[in-house]
Amino acid sequence: MNRIFLRVMAGTAISLLGYAVFAFLLFNGLNTVRFQQFQEELAEPLVQWLRASPESHLAVLDRLAQSSDARQHGLVEQTFGLTRLEQDRLNSGHILFKPASGLYQVVTRLDNGPLWFVMRWQNPLEDSALWLGQIVALEASVLNEESRRKRLVAWSDFSGYQFRVLSPDLATAEDGLNAFHQARLRNNSYLFQYDEKGLPDRLLLSLADGNTLEMSQLRRFNPWSVGIILALGVAGLVFLAAALYFLLDTLDRRLRKLETMASRIARGELEARVDESRFDALGRLSRVFNQMAEHIERLVGVQREMIHAVSHELRTPVARIRFGVQMIEDCESAEMRAKQISGIDTDIQELNELIDEILTYARLEQGGPILDFQEVNLLDIVNQVVDEQQRVKPEIVLSCEFQGASKQWGKTEAEPRYIHRSLQNLVGNAMRYASSEVVVICNFSEETCRIDVEDDGAGIPESDWEKVFTPFARLDDSRTRSSGGYGLGLSIVRRILYWHGGQAFVSRSELGGAKFSLVWPRQQSHEAV
Questions:
Q1: CB of 520 within 8 A of CB of 500?
Q2: Terminus-to-terminus CA distance in the chain, angstroms?
Q3: What's the rounded Cα separation, in Å, for the pair 175 and 193?
Q4: Do residue 505 and residue 388 come from a single domain?
Q5: What is the pLDDT of residues 182-204, one digit of tens each?
Q6: Full residue range of the structural domain in which residue 209 is found
Q7: Most Cβ neighbours (<10 Å): which of 80, 119, 347, 515?
């Protein structure tokens, strides 16, 4: 699977995991602040009512505490455990809501005096509604129907709750209160009704005239507010954008390095290379880029070397031809002129062979010829080359051996013209440098083809084994220009084997001389051509 895809997926997964942790902390942090504010807002209507007339309203609270469940409240001179920030909030008129000894303590100032008003609630949602509901019920009990209606509207606008009076029959018909609920309402003077989530949905309070005060639209905390959803959405986009930027920036920086190296090569800095250590798509692209750069550098080097070598190699036959032409002018006899003409013809033939070698090597080196791979019989090619070379130098003993199952696997896929030429070059070189014997050993199998050409000549020093494949290479006197050749034959052999997916190399022969080997696969993939 594509490593870049895996890296992007892994980076995305890590960013999503990081976002999940951050979103959880953000959600809890924001809702902690919102819930604290919500709790303070629960006490806001009651505190505002108390601040309107502290002395009389405190008396109302005292009377309610005596007639129902004990409501803990009162004026105190100081509270303990408050931070400096909490004290500053109280001094500025805010409401402070904080846990204290299993209860929830609501602290505020009713006026600018030295005393603080403290309420202690067990259940903020129910207690805040019950305190305010009982105050409204107490006030509504002493009003006539018209005044009560107006006062309840005012209470609704003031507190944000919805108040209305229900007759006993209406309450039972609308709400389906059973006998148990009615008994609780009569005994406790109030009854909470809950929704499917277990949150208080409505408060019913008994009035002195037998009617029921309904207090609805009780406040509840919604953790999934629009602001929270927007905050989480924005955080998610930021995390995803950051992850994508980091991943794409890494790819962009690597592409920019590749672009920089390409620009350097275009400027002539052929040694420029990119890092190819990573095993992903860009790593593979970097390896191909480096191979291309090496190929270009080698081609440019070969081109420079060929220009230098060709100018040197062409100079000798051209000089001899010029000298021969000048000698013809001075020749007095027809025999001398014929000799000079023959020499000129030989030099022209040599010049033609050199040009052919150069063009062949250039075609193979510049990206390869269009090879026409076909099924050929290597046994016939080997025997043909051996017969041809034996006739050239009959004084050298030239033998051919087919080892193992070579005759069974003699048919292979190759370009017959170039395989013939590569083998001809090796056998020709061996015949040229051998003392008395040359052996051609063939070993063909189902997978590979191998041909070894050995001679009993002076051999090649191991330090020069690679040098002999260099174009226009010259070794010691045992293999110099005097024995023939232009230094391109072995270079052509190696390039032919390269385009066949194989290789050519040299080693030491058991006969005492050099051993040249050709190895290539029997079947061609056709992709490298």
A1: yes
A2: 28
A3: 10
A4: yes
A5: 777 777 678 888 888 888 888 88
A6: 144-222
A7: 119
pLDDT at position 449 over 90:
yes
- CATH number of the domain bearing residue 270: 1.10.287.130
Least Cα distance to 127 among 156, 150, 103 occurs for: 103
> pLDDT tens digits, residue range 201-241?
888 888 888 788 889 888 888 888 888 899 889 988 888 88
**Beta-sheet strand order (sheet of 116-121):** 72-76, 116-121, 103-108, 96-100
Cα separation, 204 vs 103, in Å, equals: 24
Residue 461: left if φ>0, alpha if ψ -120 to 50, beta else—which one? beta
Closest CA to 40 of 111, 94, 115: 94
Residues 257, 186 within the same domain? no
Range 207-210 contact pairs with CB under 8 angstroms and sequence separation of 24 or more: 207/137, 207/140, 207/141, 207/165, 208/141, 209/141, 210/168
407 residue type, one letter? K
Beta strand residue intervals within 10-59, DSSP E: none
Residues 381 and 282 in one domain: no
Phi-psi map region of 373: left, alpha, beta (phi>0 left; psi -120 to 50 alpha)? beta
Question: Of 463, 467, 444, whose CA–CA distance to 520 is shortest?
Answer: 444
Tell me which residue of 511, 470, 463, 518 sits closest to 490, measured CA to CA. Answer: 470
- Using DSSP, state whether 402 is helix, strand or coil: strand
- Among the ranges given (80-94, 213-227, 483-497, 508-522), the one the predictor scored with the smallest mean pLDDT: 483-497
Torsion angle, alpha carbons of 85, 87, 90, 92, to 10:
-70
Mean pLDDT along residues 37-43: 89
Alpha carbons 9 and 186: distance in angstroms, whole number? 65
Q: What is the pLDDT of residue 481?
A: 44
Helices (H), 366-502: 378-392, 416-433, 489-499
Per-residue confidence (pLDDT) for residue 519, from 0 to 100: 94
Question: Both 376 and 274 in a single domain?
Answer: no
Question: 């204290």: which residue's tokens?
Answer: 100
Q: Mean pLDDT over residues 402-415, rounded? A: 89
With a pLDDT cut of 70, the percent of the chain lying above it is 87
Same domain for 193 and 240?
no
Residue 503 has pLDDT above 80, yes or no: yes
pLDDT of 402 = 92
User: Over the chain, what is the mean pLDDT?
Assistant: 82
3-state secondary structure of 142: coil
Q: What is the DSSP letter of 201?
A: E
Average pLDDT over residues 438-454: 93
**Whether the Cβ atoms of residue 358 and residue 488 lie closer than 8 Å to each other:** yes
CA distances from 464 to 302, 313, 461, 472, 489 (A): 19, 22, 5, 14, 16
What per-residue confidence (pLDDT) applies to 69? Answer: 54
Same domain as 516, residue 412: yes
* pTM reported for the whole predicted model: 0.50
